[in-house]
Amino acid sequence: LKTPLKQASTSQLVLTERQPDCQPLTTPPKPKETPPADPWTPTSNLKMLISAASPEIRSRDQRRQLSDSSSEVLQTKHCLQEHLLGDEYEKSQPSRKEKSLGLLCHKFLARYPDYPSPSQKSYICLDEVTEELHVERRRIYDIVNVLESLHMVSRLARNRYVWHGRHNLPQTLQALRKVGEENKYIQQIQMIKRREYEHEFDPDSERNEEMASSFGSSEQSEMSFVELPGVEFRAASVNGRKYKSLRVMSQKFVMLFLVSTPQIVSLEVAAKILIGEDQLEDLDKSKFKTKIRRLYDIANVLSSLKLIKKVHVTEERGRKPAFKWTGPEVLPNTQDIKLEATSTTCSPPISESITSKEQCSKALFPSKGKQNFTRHSSLIKLVKSIENDRRKIQSAPTSPAKISASTYLFIIFLLETSFSLFLSQMTAEEMQMKCALSSPEAVPKPEPSQQPALSQPLGVCPASHSCVSPVILPHPQSGVSYAIYLHPSQAHTVTTYSPGFMLQPLPCANVTGIKNNNSKILNIITTEEGDTQRGPDEPTKSLAAEERPEMKSETSSQRCLKRSQALPESNLIKRRKSDEESLDTSLTFFPSGYLIPLTHCTHGNKAECSTKEKAGVCSLQHTAYSSPITGVIPMPASELKTVNIPAFHITPLNIMLSPNSIAAAPILSNSCLYSSSTSSAPNPSSSALNFMLQHIGLIPAGVQVPANPVLQHMPVSSQSENINHSSGSTIVQEGKVIEFTFYSPISESNFLFSFQFLQPKEPQEPQAVTENFFRTPGGPNTEPALSANSDGTQRTSQGTLYIPQRKLEVSED
DNA sequence: TCCTCCCGCCAAGCA
DNA sequence: TGCTTGGCGGGAGGA
């Protein structure tokens, strides 16, 4: 008796024979139990014929037929052999590989066309499938669940599904990508990698605790099934298990690929993210193993669909299993981009688009009505991370401190916090005074289409990057305006605290349509009464009210773009145009809570300043300008050309900027530093700084840190040639380096942060990501004694404490 | 030894 | 109440 050889290549053979665009082929049924009469459908008959065209399959079928012809005799013999040779019998059983879920999925997919005719619905009866494929029901559920997550099938009734094929796949992937972006999976991946990274150098750290605290408190942890319009979801047990469902896991897994660059996701990272979202209190090893098991299940099905492919990622710690996306490329929603870039005023398609998307993505961020005054969950994670770093710093203040990514994130936190504090320090009177003192031409009356949307109801936008609200803080004295990106909730906070504060949405990051319009954008400053208590007779109020319904369905970026284009010829533009002419690059802004100077450092506004100084406005604004906390002292564009910040960034805030707006990076130009910090006016930010540093634990309570700038500029000589000045694009390309220094009062050292992102030209080539952190000795105004190397790998100097490097190599099996 | 993942128990939920 | 659905983890095959 010749049973099919238990050849290792069997499954591979079947896999390789199947071409993606061919009609699927049938796979041979298990030899030992050939059904007397296969219920061949016309389709399967056709497939059988096609498969017969393959010599390999034909020969295999011939063997099978030969076997079938003498089945009775052979079966008897088989039984005899089974009795006689138990080991042999065992060997005759299909190997594990032949029973793999991937192979089974191939068989399953072979039954149905990739693109079924819409008029002719294919139904899936689980009983039939299990019988024909000779598998347990349980296995079919695994497959069907994953297919369901991609909307390739949908459940019709008990035991019954509808086959959609790949018709819905592009739409589904688009939706998943969108949801993945909103869910900030990139940041989560970065954070996990960073923690692993830190753990390499500090194995005794409270890694698990950190991980748990990072994810466990996430309010956005629950995510339900992402549906498509028109594809109804009728899972059998929707309530109890939906969050752990293989469907949801599968969707999340796919999301990770869609948002990652490169599109390679290791199982470990995926599992950690999935565990984190299940609000696990700790990283239980068994849970982790279970998650990995499920991911293998999902990966097998996705591999059968040719959406992913197994690879291995070789890091310094070893070789890790990972998967690479091989499915269709899913670009960011081009429709959205177009809308953002071209919309001028009220644009109904935007709201329609968003409504549709919201329908697609159900309850990704469950609205619990807590968005007001709460930090976004991603920042909560950062804060926890910062706290952990703080502990480390406090525990060993004189020992070489390890500067982790968290410390960098701490700076982000500082910046963000400083702005909040700065705003909260400004009394309503001050702000109103500021408004009053601003020259009328500098503050043109708003037009209906310019009305900022800060008074819009909260909760309209999901918590996503796309909904941060960029605003401008005009600073007439310095001639510098500050762009501030705020989450809608923060924007609301601002307006609540500061009734008369001037806020002006700006075009969001990387809007292609605003290239070379920076001078216009920079100077479009309108007033907004954020206080909704104002009387209805006031024009701005009524205007705001008029616009509010529209705002409900717009993203901030869309709104702000409208505004930027609505006031192209404002007087302010004329007045300040000369200041802005030196800037000929396109503008993009930090979508964050940063306080960002929008122009290079200018010092020619003394007349304006003197006027306002009389009322104390200048000093106030000067504070904003020179705030050491914000660390956003502008610098000449010439100094900025050498620096860029990768869009591939570890902060939860997508930093996207042009060579011009790079001035907003936490880099300090010394010239500006001194010119801006010599003000004799009281500096409210000093107390804010001390409050923060004390609060965060970098300085003990009672200790006061002078409000000297803590950030210093260190020119980066490398990689500057990579910056694409002509395009002004904010998308950073390979090899870009960003460096900045940060002075820690507690350790009296400067920290130099350096990031470099390297991406291969070819996806198959090894990829490397290097990140370096340094600490340098010296005081607040000391230039770090480090030189930056272009490759980021050979940097050493006195005071260099920590130079972790990570290289990532990707190899395919 | 570790990776991979099959297998089947058993509980939740449905008809 | 029987059946369907599917979470889960033990443990075995394979590298």
UniProtKB/TrEMBL annotation:
The keyword Transmembrane does not apply. Residues 57-66, 531-553 have a biased composition (Basic and acidic residues). Its main location: nucleus. GO terms for molecular function: DNA-binding transcription factor activity, RNA polymerase II-specific; RNA polymerase II cis-regulatory region sequence-specific DNA binding. Residues 1-14, 787-800 have a biased composition (Polar residues). One of its GO terms (cellular component) is RNA polymerase II transcription regulator complex. Keywords: Activator, Cell cycle, DNA-binding, Nucleus, Repressor, Transcription, Transcription regulation. Residues 96-165, 241-327 form the E2F/DP family winged-helix DNA-binding domain. Coiled coil: none annotated. Residues 1-44, 55-74, 526-564, 765-813 are annotated as: Disordered. It comes from the Eukaryota. The keyword Protease does not apply. GO terms for biological process: negative regulation of DNA-templated transcription; positive regulation of macromolecule metabolic process; positive regulation of nucleobase-containing compound metabolic process; sprouting angiogenesis. It is found in: Nucleus. It holds the Pfam family WHD_E2F_TDP. Belongs to the E2F/DP family. This is Transcription factor E2F8.
